């Protein structure tokens, strides 16, 4: 059987992680062809060299081809992974910088930075989704492109439930909470719900019993894992839930903004410089592209454990939490869909009737049963009011971003920034739109 996976953003730095996961899959029905698509031919060359070295000693490794032609890449695809970064890491650095200069959070996916990234990305994701609907109507689209919830929702307007968004952060959190409770992460049911990068663990059931109260009652246990230290035992007990690490930007906003303003450079700027070195090395004749990739990756992963990582997750992570394992989530999802192997994964899908405070088309992040029919959200208890409030505010902002991308209205873009809980003035929102449109050619459509 021929199974074809198309990777959009195929010249991306994390593509070898995905290919590595595919190489480890020996079961029937596995991916046999990988098509890499990227706008940048040099990045494709660099990453293709890494993959060729990865495949060198593996019998029946998935065949890899590369193209800069999007329609050609999509035709005949069974699965499409979208992992693009519109504007590149230079764009990410500008998202961070412009917001921090205004005194608000400058971060890849949260707050003003995330809105700017969304405004840039939605028109591109929209175009991709339309093409997939035309050229590969039976394909499943797995979206890692950030801001993942918003981008998945944009694509779902063309693809319905055939697009599924993924993120590694809920799995990582669930795994850490399970471990600290002495439970096997594979056996435990993680009761998690929210939006992407805005969710909470409300319970962890083992054999039907909720073990989370035991964790919340024990300051020593709370102090022994990343989120426990990040938020502090008192705040976690007050909440009665364990938030996704990205909630740190909301609950400790001033502290993070100040720390980032004082940092020597932003995460985006760090990665931009680091990856530029990798892409230059990887195409140099006589060098091993794989060795260059591995050493760059090791250097990047070391920053996950240091203070200068921009996400709230700075701190010590277990070795297998490094780089989150999003390729594992992607592979597990593909296997479940392609082989009808029933499994449960926390994914970004349309709400349906899961959270009553949101409409059916709102994309949320929630445990889903996955099988050949796709991902089906599992009914979730309502969130407490304060969390529902945040979820509804941020979803309203996402909707303004979608509206601004559709109409090209600058006023709607201002509204998106102004309504965000982490942007504290309409005046700031106006200046952010000025700053971002000046920094990003990809926002020239806003009038
Ligand atoms: C986690 C998040 C991703 C995000 C990434 C940033 O994996 O789930 O959505 O893109 O962190 O990591 P980076 O190394 O690029 O700062
Ligand atoms: Mn994520």
UniProtKB/TrEMBL annotation:
The keyword Metal-binding applies. InterPro entries: GlycHydrolase_4_CS, Glyco_hydro_4, Glyco_hydro_4_C, Lactate_DH/Glyco_Ohase_4_C, NAD(P)-bd_dom_sf. Belongs to the glycosyl hydrolase 4 family. Mn(2+) binds at residues 167, 197. Transmembrane segments: none annotated. GO terms for biological process: carbohydrate metabolic process. Pfam families: Glyco_hydro_4, Glyco_hydro_4C. Residues 301-310 have a biased composition (Basic and acidic residues). CDD domains: GH4_P_beta_glucosidase. Binds 1 NAD(+) per subunit. It comes from the Bacteria. Substrate binds at residues 92, 146. Residues 301-320 are annotated as: Disordered. The active site is at 168 (proton donor), 246 (proton acceptor). PANTHER family: 6-PHOSPHO-BETA-GLUCOSIDASE, 6-PHOSPHO-BETA-GLUCOSIDASE-RELATED. Keywords: Cobalt, Glycosidase, Hydrolase, Iron, Manganese, Metal-binding, NAD, Nickel. Residues 192-423 form the Glycosyl hydrolase family 4 C-terminal domain. It comes from Streptomyces minutiscleroticus. The record marks 108 as: Increases basicity of active site Tyr. One of its GO terms (molecular function) is hydrolase activity, hydrolyzing O-glycosyl compounds. This is 6-phospho-beta-glucosidase. PROSITE patterns: GLYCOSYL_HYDROL_F4. Its cofactor is NAD(+).
């Amino acid at each position: 059987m021929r199974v074809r996976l198309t990777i959009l953003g195929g010249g991306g730095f994390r593509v070898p992680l995905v290919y590595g996961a595919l190489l480890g899959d020996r079961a029937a029905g596995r991916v046999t062809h990988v098509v890499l698509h990227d706008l940048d031919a040099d990045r494709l060359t660099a990453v293709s060299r890494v993959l060729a070295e990865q495949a060198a000693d593996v019998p029946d490794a998935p065949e890899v081809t590369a193209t800069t032609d999007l329609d050609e890449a999509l035709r005949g695809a069974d699965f499409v992974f979208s992992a693009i970064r519109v504007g590149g890491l230079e764009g990410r650095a500008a998202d961070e910088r412009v917001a921090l200069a205004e005194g608000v959070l400058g971060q890849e996916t949260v707050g003003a930075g995330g809105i700017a990234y969304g405004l840039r990305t939605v028109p591109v994701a929209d175009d991709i989704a339309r093409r997939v609907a035309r050229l590969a109507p039976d394909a499943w689209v797995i979206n890692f492109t950030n801001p993942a919830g918003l981008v998945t929702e944009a694509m779902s307007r063309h693809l319905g439930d055939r697009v599924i968004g993924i993120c590694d952060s809920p799995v990582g959190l669930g795994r850490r909470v399970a471990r600290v409770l002495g439970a096997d992460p594979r056996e435990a049911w993680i009761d998690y719900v929210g939006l992407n990068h805005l969710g909470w663990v409300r319970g962890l059931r083992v054999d039907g019993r909720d073990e989370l109260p035991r964790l919340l009652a024990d300051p020593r246990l709370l102090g022994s894992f990343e989120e426990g230290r990040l938020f502090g035992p008192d705040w976690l007990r007050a909440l009665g839930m364990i938030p996704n690490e990205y909630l740190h930007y909301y609950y400790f906003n001033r502290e993070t903004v100040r720390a980032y303003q004082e940092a020597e450079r932003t995460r985006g700027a760090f990665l931009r410089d680091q990856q530029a070195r990798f892409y230059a090395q990887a195409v140099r004749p006589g060098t091993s592209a794989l060795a260059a990739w591995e050493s760059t990756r090791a250097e990047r992963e070391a920053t996950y454990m240091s203070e200068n990582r921009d996400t709230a997750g700075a701190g010590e992570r277990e070795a297998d939490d490094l780089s989150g394992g999003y390729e594992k989530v992607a592979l597990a999802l593909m296997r479940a869909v392609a082989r009808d192997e029933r499994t449960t994964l926390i994914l970004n899908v349309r709400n349906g009737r899961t959270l009553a405070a949101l409409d059916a088309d709102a994309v949320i992040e929630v445990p889903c049963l996955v099988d050949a029919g796709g991902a089906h959200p599992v009914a979730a208890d309502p969130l407490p009011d304060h969390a529902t409030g945040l979820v509804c505010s941020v979803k309203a902002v996402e909707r303004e971003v979608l509206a601004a991308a559709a109409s090209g209205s600058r006023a709607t873009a201002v509204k998106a920034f102004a309504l965000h809980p982490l942007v504290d003035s309409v005046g700031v929102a106006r200046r952010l739109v000025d700053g971002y449109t000046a920094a990003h050619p990809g926002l020239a459509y806003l009038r």
